[in-house]
Amino acid sequence: MAAKRGFDPLSLGGIVFGLGALGIGFALEGGDFGALLLPSPIIIIFGGTAGTLMTSVPVSPVAWGSIAGASFTAVHHDSVETIQTFVRLAEKARREGLLSLESEMANIHDHFMKEGIQEVVDGTPAEQITDIFMVRIESMEKRHHVGKEFWAQMGGFAPTMGIIGTVLGLTVVLGSLGGADAAGLGHSIAVAFIATLFGVALANLVALPVAKRCQIKSEHEVEYLNMVVAGILSIQAGDSPRLVRAKLNSYLNGTDQKRLAKAAEGGAATAAA
């Protein structure tokens, strides 16, 4: 089975849930949503944060859309099915030799695994296979790191932009104290603090959670690819199907280990029958 890439509903759903909770709390306190839609705090927060990102993150603003799109998608691998494929390849290699795996290429839909098995069939030494695929994994990690840093830097700068916006607003308020009544003064101070609200909300409801999610997804992807490399090297070494399964089993979480054990039991029962 090939990796499935698709929209990650939990990432956007968490943001919507968090914003909704804030909105409900604001409404219960008697807040006026119209007061939040002032142009000046929005320009200060989003414009100022965008400017800091241009300076700190070495990525063209044109690529920001691609980063955002990748951050809200997820790659789903079925590790159990991948291990079962490796076990099947190990059985065939032990019976018919490594060259026989050439005929299995059409049945391998994971491109990373397919290229690795092709290297095995071509007789590439294990050290070179390790070097080739470790470099590819490191390159992928670097690409993921750029996306994570984009959101992490946004989460760091947005609250500061909010404080700057509040300071600017309070500066204007203090400059007009002489001619302002109490009601007008209170309203102006409240408007000034909207900038801080936007900055803190942008950081803690959007940027920092997305950065952390990007990091976790990258770690899962790296773990899966390391498992694939281990499977490729195990087949090249001529390991038995049972040993291949045992080696790769350690990469699985508890739930998938149970799935793999159940699949192995089912396969053994079928073979016995």
Any descriptors?
273 residues; two-stranded antiparallel ribbon; elongated
Question: Which range does the strand content fall in?
Answer: under 5%
Mean pLDDT: 88
Helix content: over 70%
Figure out the total of helices.
Answer: 9
Distance between the termini: 27 Å
Radius of gyration of CA atoms, rounded to a whole number: 27 Å
Structural class: mainly alpha
Strand tally, please? 2
Number of domains: 1
Shape: elongated
Q: SSE string, helix = H, strand = E?
A: EHHHEHHHHHH
Strand order of the largest sheet: 1-2
**Biggest sheet, in brief?**
2 strands, antiparallel
The parts where pLDDT drops under 50 for at least 5 residues are 269-273
Can you tell me about this structure?
- This protein is an all-alpha fold.
- Helix content is 76%, strand content 3%.
- It contains nine helices and two strands; from the N terminus they run βαααβαααααα.
- The protein has a two-stranded antiparallel sheet with strand order 1-2.
- The longest helix is centred in the C-terminal third of the chain and has 55 residues, at 182-236.
- The radius of gyration is 27 Å and the shape is elongated.
- The two termini are 27 Å apart.
- 24% of the residues are buried.
What layout of secondary structure does this protein have?
Elements: E1 4-7, H1 9-28, H2 39-56, H3 64-71, E2 73-76, H4 79-96, H5 111-121, H6 126-175, H7 182-236, H8 241-249, H9 254-272
Antiparallel strand pairs: 1-2
Helix pairs in contact: 1-7, 2-6, 2-7, 4-7, 4-8, 4-9, 5-7, 6-7, 7-8
